[in-house]
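Q: Could you fold this chain for me?
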Amino acid sequence: MIATLLCFSFANLSLSFITKYNEKMEIFATPTIELEGYTGAILHSSQTLAWEENGTIISNAANSQDSTDICPDGSGGAVIVRTDNREGGDINIYAQRISAAGVRQWSPSNGIIICNASGDQINPQISRTSTGEYIITWRDQRTDLGDIYAQKVSATDIRQWTPSNGVVLCDASGEQTLQKICCDNTGGAFIVWQDWRGTYKAIYALRIGFQGTIHGDTDGTRIDEDQTSNLFNSYICSDGNGNAFIAYSDEDQINPNKAVLVAQKLNSSGKVEWGVRKDLSSGVVENQIEPKMCSDSTGGAIIIWRDNRNDIRYDNYAQKINSTGDR
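A: Sure. Below is the predicted structure, expressed as structure tokens.
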């Protein structure tokens, strides 16, 4: 059984949702709580389990449902987005909202359609907006190997943007993939992805406003204009002030088995903010990959990554930057 974990905390209390799918590719979810080191399941006042003991069913439609992502709904529940092969042909995107009591909120119970265009839609990612809606982005193969699309869904399961099968964010030549998303604090979102339109793998990003308007260059803003090597493993987070930080790996030109970790900032206009990208590790050239980061709540960010600078085994390193990218 494969699982995805969502956690969010309030003071000394943390709430986690685990989504998982079994050998039948049915999706389940289970919440747990942890208070000062103690972990348990959520209970009703009657001391009975709020959710099914072995997981609450999210979808048991025909064929496979997998590739999940999840975000909190702001009311103790969560919204889960996934790929879905219930028709037995193309892979589509579906979503469901689950309440704090473990009850599926949207109809039909096996999930609402986010996109059922021709071709496969894969790797969905979701973020809750500051206005209580949900923006979902995915890699879309309706016309080629992969473009980037998005759709916004209301808290009551209504798709908000036209066309209903998603707004195209990037349909440039080559393959666009591995997109990530974060909210922009004004009802929209920032989205970053890996892009094969040129000689090297590049990183592109943009901002999509609450009405579905694109902010940035057509087909995305190139994050590193002086690129002479492959860029990959991008990750994005909000700075809390309407901008976003992007961390990514830059492959060494001489030794492609090594990469340095760098960062850039995207402003609310979808444009690169810093004239020169920021080095996160003082030029240490080994293999610094798979960054994750979050806002530090003061306009900066904290980044963590995998790093094998000391030996062939990987360690975890972290760095904190302020609003101007200084460590």
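A (continued): Residues 1-14, 33-47 have pLDDT under 50 and may be disordered.
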